[in-house]
Amino acid sequence: MIVRFTVNGEKAAVEAPGSRRLLDVLREELALTGTKEGCGEGECGACSVLIDGEVVNSCLVAAGQVEGSAVTTVEGLATDGTLSPLQQAFIERGAAQCGICTPGMLLAAHALLAENPRPSEDEVRVGLAGNLCRCTGYTKIFDAVLACRT
What is the pTM of this model? Predict the structure, then answer.
């Protein structure tokens, strides 16, 4: 099956079984290795991407489900090699340690800020609740997201 969709603003056509995980298509067929596999069960959020602006766990999405959709991975947050303000805030505030959760956290935070440009700390906590981190204790991640409020 050929699956046609847009990824990070570019058209893509990938030949893959429709049941193949989107996570694997992104990493192996399109070399977008920013998307990480953590648990493979949809529990940790490390593989989060945006599909038509909604945060989803790519380990639970069959490639055939994204036909005609717009997919954004962490690579799509940067513009012409320049990190987004959110990515820069993660660096400046030490919000990334081992890096497994970081892409999913960034995409969840990006979606949250797109929907609510001035979230409270509690709203940030709820917005990132589907993403687990075992390194930072979350404080630096929350600080980075709060620093990007407009």
Answer: 0.95
